[in-house]
């Protein structure tokens, strides 16, 4: 018998299980990496389509409430002070130190803070000499002219000497309560008292112009320190509200 040699070329080869599994795993890993990269690209494209640029962070510092953003003609971004209109260039680090230093030294800001309007309740004066305890809304900022007028009324009401406004204790008290208080002289307060008298006289004439009948009484006043006597003429009348009024 003759032995036959098997044809190697015609014999089917068995697949290498280990190598096939390795190639399949590598293909799966490559597919996952590709999908991940595509997702990242898609996310970036989505952001570009929605905003075009990266969104800016919200400003959280309190200094930005007193500055406004201004774009100059050369494209530079600056912050403009709302008080003095001074423009400060913004740095790349987004630091606010230079803006805080400016607010601390800004003169117009200090003036604004000292003159901020407040709601205060003061007794309402109707001009007839009687102070009605009715609240009236007034501007709370300091006004030296009104303080001088009030000082003149105070001197006339209580017969204080004009020199009282020059006393050290009086000015110390006023300065303690109102740092903006300015010292005035006896000559100045005398002029203010005369001006208050003229204003009150005009008010009284305007009031009596609408009165049909008045009753006049006289009295004598004597100054204890100067021994001088004055005759006082008082007018009594009924106003439109049927209230009895009197005026010197």
UniProtKB/TrEMBL annotation:
<dbReference type="GO" id="GO:0003677">
    <property type="term" value="F:DNA binding"/>
</dbReference>
<feature type="region of interest" description="Disordered">
    <location>
        <begin position="1"/>
        <end position="59"/>
    </location>
</feature>
<keyword id="KW-0862">Zinc</keyword>
<protein>
    <submittedName>
        <fullName>Zinc finger, BED-type</fullName>
    </submittedName>
</protein>
<dbReference type="InterPro" id="IPR052035">
    <property type="entry name" value="ZnF_BED_domain_contain"/>
</dbReference>
<keyword id="KW-0863">Zinc-finger</keyword>
<dbReference type="Pfam" id="PF02892">
    <property type="entry name" value="zf-BED"/>
</dbReference>
<keyword id="KW-0479">Metal-binding</keyword>
<dbReference type="InterPro" id="IPR003656">
    <property type="entry name" value="Znf_BED"/>
</dbReference>
<dbReference type="GO" id="GO:0008270">
    <property type="term" value="F:zinc ion binding"/>
</dbReference>
<keyword id="KW-0805">Transcription regulation</keyword>
<dbReference type="InterPro" id="IPR036236">
    <property type="entry name" value="Znf_C2H2_sf"/>
</dbReference>
<feature type="compositionally biased region" description="Basic and acidic residues">
    <location>
        <begin position="30"/>
        <end position="42"/>
    </location>
</feature>
<feature type="domain" description="BED-type">
    <location>
        <begin position="58"/>
        <end position="119"/>
    </location>
</feature>
<keyword id="KW-0804">Transcription</keyword>
<dbReference type="GO" id="GO:0005634">
    <property type="term" value="C:nucleus"/>
</dbReference>
<feature type="compositionally biased region" description="Polar residues">
    <location>
        <begin position="1"/>
        <end position="29"/>
    </location>
</feature>
<keyword id="KW-0539">Nucleus</keyword>
<dbReference type="GO" id="GO:0009791">
    <property type="term" value="P:post-embryonic development"/>
</dbReference>
């Amino acid at each position: 018998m003759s032995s036959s040699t098997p044809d190697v070329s015609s014999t089917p080869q068995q697949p290498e299980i280990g190598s096939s599994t390795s190639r399949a795993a590598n293909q799966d890993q490559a597919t996952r990496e590709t999908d991940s990269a595509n997702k990242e690209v898609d996310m970036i494209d989505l952001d570009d389509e929605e905003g075009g640029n990266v969104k800016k962070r919200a400003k959280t510092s309190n200094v930005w409430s007193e500055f406004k953003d201004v774009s100059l003609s050369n494209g530079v971004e600056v912050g403009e002070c709302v008080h003095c209109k001074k423009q400060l260039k913004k740095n790349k680090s987004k630091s606010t130190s230079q803006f805080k230093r400016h607010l601390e030294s800004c003169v117009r800001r200090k003036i604004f803070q000292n003159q901020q309007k407040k709601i205060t309740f003061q007794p309402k004066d109707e001009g007839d000499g009687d102070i009605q305890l009715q609240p009236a809304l007034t501007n709370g900022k300091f006004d030296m002219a009104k303080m001088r007028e009030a000082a003149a009324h105070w001197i006339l009401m209580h017969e204080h000497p004009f020199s009282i406004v020059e006393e050290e204790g009086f000015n110390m008290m006023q300065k303690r309560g109102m740092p903006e208080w300015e010292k005035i002289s006896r000559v100045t307060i005398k002029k203010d008292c005369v001006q208050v008298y003229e204003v009150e006289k005009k008010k009284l004439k305007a009031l009596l112009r609408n009165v049909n009948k008045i009753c006049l009484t006289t009295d004598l006043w004597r100054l204890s320190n100067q021994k001088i006597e004055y005759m006082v003429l008082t007018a009594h009348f009924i106003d439109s509200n049927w209230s009895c009024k009197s005026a010197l």
